[in-house]
Amino acid sequence: MSRKLNMAIVGLGFGSEFIPIYQRHPLVNMYAVCQRNKESLDKIGKAFGVEKRYISFEDLIQDPQVDCVHINSPIHLHAPQSIAALRAGKHVACTVPACTTLEEAREIVKAAKESGKKYMMMETVVWSREYLYVRELRDAGQLGRIQFVRGSHLQNMYGWPGYWEGLPPMHYATHCVSPCLGIVSGEAEFVSCLGSGRIAEKLIAKYGSPFSFETAHFKVRNQDVAGEVTRYLFDSARQYIESFDCYGSQTSFEWQLTEHDDPVLHVGGEKVEKVKIPDYAHLLPEGIREFTTKCVYDLAENAHLSFIQGSGHGGSHPHLAHEFVMSILEDRPSFPDVHQSVNWTMVGILAHESALRGGEKIYIPNFRGI
Ligand SMILES: NC(=O)c1ccc[n+]([C@@H]2O[C@H](COP(=O)([O-])OP(=O)(O)OC[C@H]3O[C@@H](n4cnc5c(N)ncnc54)[C@H](O)[C@@H]3O)[C@@H](O)[C@H]2O)c1
User: Fold this and answer.
1) pLDDT band at 303, cuts 50/70/90?
2) What mean pLDDT is predicted for residues 79-92?
3) Which of 45, 182, 333, 367 has CB 3.0 to 4.6 Å from 53, enough for a Cys bridge?
């Protein structure tokens, strides 16, 4: 394709973060924005200078000028909108999680295959600077053989939009599952999970999920490596953490216990050193490098639309945008590709199912044959 890709962003809360990144990407035309509320759609459209605006997702995906959509709507819309956009012939990037059921996972894979379009789940953790640092160690052979992986995502979600209230913790597990499977370039074969504790009664009814914590083990398909992930969303006392540990035969990486500390490398089992994680902006086109440290939030309070936010999702946003765009232009699988995206999401969906069944081992369907 010789012209720039016409990008449309759907959902303008978190989604607004990506508008200036695509605007500055040398191979993208930030073409359209879409959300249901006309007033705030116009406000955001005007603030960023995006002329083409849609209040209807269905109308947006009928626009022949749109090459790709980046979906940032509420969780339950991710899969239906992704499938509809793929079937309308658009490349799709979608924020996490990819879906909420196995049927949706299968349909996403089918729609991507039948349309020949790209699908990428925009998992921030696997493009964070911490992940890129461990990936660099892995690729340089410094970790040795990867023996075990572990992740946790502990976050109190009181005060977030209503659809979060009572959500089963493992239904939003991609931030801890993805780095574990990403670093071994793998997909999970089966999962077993226990639920623990009990959340407030008024929250339980919404999704029928009583657990404060859920903790799961999974086996990596065709590898002799296993992983463990832990999540909580409500009614436990713990500072926010999205952590990832990777144990190698030569060197292991462990996340810090508390914010503002540094991660630790265990070298050869005896030597322990704290590491300052470098930034990876140099991997990006010049125009979007600054976004590894800069975010755009809250139009009302920030007149010039932006502020510096130390680590904003590990500096992942411009890497995600760039990966999505280049996977289309180079016609190659994105990281994660559609299979990884749905597998990493299904680990959480089936982990919750397992927890409801007292820890039963559940096999994860392999949709690669579709
Ligand atoms: N680290 C991460 O990867 C990360 C961080 C934050 C949010 N998220 C994801 O981003 C998503 C959005 O988060 P948020 O905090 O902005 O949510 P939000 O509920 O505040 O905003 C949702 C946006 O979607 C729009 N929307 C709703 N229904 C729509 C429809 N039918 N058509 C078009 N637009 C529609 C709304 O108008 C709004 O702009 C969530 O699903 C969350 O999972 C991911």
Assistant:
1) very low
2) 98
3) 45
Q: Which of 36, 58, 155, 242 is the best mutation target for the ligand 1 pocket, counting ligand atoms within 8 Å of the beta carbon and taking the most? A: 36
How far apart, in whole angstroms, are the C-alpha atoms of residue 117 and residue 62? 15
Alpha helices in the chain (DSSP H): 19-24, 38-48, 57-60, 78-87, 102-115, 129-139, 174-183, 201-207, 317-329, 338-356
Domain holding 68: CATH number? 3.40.50.720
CATH classification at residue 174: 3.30.360.10
The DSSP line for 20-45 is HHHHH-TTEEEEEEE-S-HHHHHHHH
Give yes or no for residue 72 CB within 6 A of ligand 1: yes
Residue nearest (by alpha carbon) to ligand 1 atom 19 = 74
- In which domain, by residue range, is 224 found? 126-281+345-369
Pair 277, 315 in one domain: no
Please provide the size of the chain in residues: 370
Q: What is the mean pLDDT of residues 9-15?
A: 94
Output the CA 274–ligand 1 centroid distance in Å: 36
Which residue has 């049927």 as its token pair? Answer: 103
**Are residue 251 and residue 141 in the same domain, yes or no?**
yes
Q: How far is the centre of ligand 1, averaged over its atoms, from the C-alpha of 266 (Å)?
A: 39
**One domain for residues 359 and 214:** yes
Ligand 1 within 6 A of CB of 13: yes
Are 245 and 160 part of one and the same domain? yes
pLDDT tens digits, one per residue of 19-50:
999 999 999 999 999 999 999 999 999 999 99
CA of 96 to the centre of ligand 1 (A): 10
Q: How many domains does the chain have?
A: 2
Q: What's the gap in Å between 71 CA and the centre of ligand 1?
A: 8
Tell me: do 84 and 32 sit in the same domain: yes
pTM over 0.70: yes
